[in-house]
Design goal:
Elements (H helix, E strand, L loop, with lengths): L10 H4 L15 H5 L12 E3 L4 E5 L14 H4 L10 H9 L6 E5 L8 H12 L6 E5 L2 H4 L6 H7 L7 E5 L9 H12 L3 E7 L8 H13 L3 E6 L16 H10 L10 E6 L2 E4 L6 E4 L3 E5 L5 E5 L4
Parallel strand pairs: 2-3, 3-4, 4-5, 5-6, 6-7, 7-8
Antiparallel strand pairs: 1-2, 8-9, 10-11, 11-12
Bound molecules: pyridoxal-5'-phosphate (PLP) and iron/sulfur cluster (SF4).
Length: 309
């Protein structure tokens, strides 16, 4: 980060601000609400569930960097909310639930576990017959790429029935370095797919040039944009929040048609009933019995026949 520039996009993500005290819209106990912890289904603290076939599995509360916009701030940054994250308890729960085919390991930052602990965790998950894929959410390829060591590659890598996907979090092109490019390449050479989940942050990445550069630059270091998240109504982060429509507008104005479709993430609102995608809704301008009128990114229109089903 730039130590002389208070508006440095990296600095704004990590240096506390007095604006965090102005909490007009953030919900108290946000995580309990968002992660459906207050339901009849009894689950360990480490398991957050919104879907039938997959869960988020929290294995650590430590991060490589502490983000001021974190929606899990109550657990990770402020530590007001006391939850017990016991890895074995979570593994036992997954083993007892045959409908869980996809395990998203999160935190904190799970790649901060030691190589041995990670190797052990992955071996135990892969031994569960109904687990078909393992995912990690980790900022380390961006904020601590030096963590991608030979030892880590040994713990994660190799051809296996159960593949590993890593989604990192990069919010601004300035965060993408040569070290990140190397780390991503190292992960890919051992069979790991790398994607990005950005958070839409006011004053950091919510303008057209930055949003476009971020997604183009991710592809130059082999990271596939997966999601862009609306900044959630967690406590103390009002000042980072844009309008709900902003992400869809940015996809329309910065990405779709302006650059390759590979650069386009899905813009989603993460809610307690799952992630809800929001697309810019200008493509179908008109529809009648004979034809559809479609609009492209430049505002040009074309027609295709409406073929009866
Ligand atoms: C985000 C999330 C998932 C994964 O969602 P995908 O759309 O499959 O990436 C799973 N469980 C919970 C609780 C989540 O928040
Ligand atoms: S790395 Fe993730 S969990 Fe940790 S503070 Fe940042 S957003 Fe929150």
């Amino acid at each position: 980060m730039d130590k002389d520039d208070p508006n440095c996009p990296i600095r704004m993500q990590v240096i506390p601000s007095s604006k965090e005290q102005v909490n007009e819209f953030g919900m108290d106990d946000y995580l309990v609400y968002k992660e459906n912890r207050d339901t009849d289904e009894v689950r360990p603290d480490s398991i957050a569930r919104q879907y039938h076939d997959r869960i988020a599995f929290t294995v650590i509360e430590t991060c490589g960097i502490y983000c001021r916009h974190c929606f899990r701030k109550e657990v990770i940054v402020d530590q007001d909310l006391k939850l017990r994250f016991d890895i074995q308890e979570g593994l036992d729960w997954i083993a007892e639930h045959p409908e869980i085919r996809d395990v998203l390991i999160t935190g904190g930052d799970p790649l901060l576990l030691s190589d041995d602990k990670l190797g052990d965790l992955i071996a135990k998950l892969r031994a569960i017959p109904h687990v078909q894929m393992i995912r990690f959410g980790s900022r380390l390829p961006i904020v601590l790429p030096q963590r991608i060591t030979e030892g880590l590659k040994k713990a994660l890598g190799g051809f296996h029935r159960v593949p590993i996907w890593i989604n990192t979090q990069c919010n601004h092109p300035k965060e993408i370095t040569e070290e990140t490019a190397k780390a991503v390449y190292e992960l890919m050479t051992c069979g790991i797919n790398v994607g990005n989940q950005a958070v839409l942050l006011k004053g950091i990445n919510d303008d057209v040039p930055t949003f476009r550069e971020l997604h183009q630059k991710l592809l130059t270091v082999r990271i596939k944009p997966y999601y862009v998240f609306y900044c959630e109504p967690a406590p103390g982060i009002d000042h980072f929040r844009t309008s709900v429509e902003k992400g869809a507008e940015l996809i329309r104005d910065a990405l779709r048609g302006h650059t390759t479709g590979l650069a386009q993430p899905m813009y989603v609102l993460a809610t307690k009933i799952g992630k809800i995608p929001l697309m810019p809704d200008y493509y179908i301008v008109d529809k009648n019995e004979k034809e559809y009128t479609l609009r492209n990114y430049k505002g040009e229109t074309t027609k295709i026949p409406n073929i009866p089903e």
